Amino acid sequence: MHEMSLAEGIVQLVEDAVRADGCTRVKAVWLEIGQLAAVEKEALRFCFDAVTHGSIAEGARLEIIDTPGLGWCMKCEGNVPVTALYEACPVCGSYQIQVTGGNEMLVKELEVE
Questions:
Q1: In the sheet that 69-73 helps form, which strands lie side by side, from edge to edge?
Q2: Which of 32, 48, 55, 112 is the most buried (most CB within 10 A)?
Q3: Quick one: DSSP state of residue 103?
Q4: Which residues share a beta bridge with 105?
Q5: Model pTM score
């Protein structure tokens, strides 16, 4: 389950950021997760709760913001919505789509004390 290593990375990033600012507690973490990022959100929530135990982020809320998948269709030369990797263009049916968004995961915001 790669969600455990993702959660560990998130907590490390959050701890580094808040300690540098002198904060004592993280109350909430907002993540943007793209539709194409291959992250099981409920598994990530479970792992986040597990890895925050004993850390500055223990008990923090994990808020997830979903972002849509986007791609550039080479055949119809336009931006198109993409709901899964390797699917056909919803406009022309071509499989020549370059993913341009929705495959990322980033820490968007923190609520701290």
A1: 78-82, 69-73, 97-101
A2: 48
A3: -
A4: 33
A5: 0.86
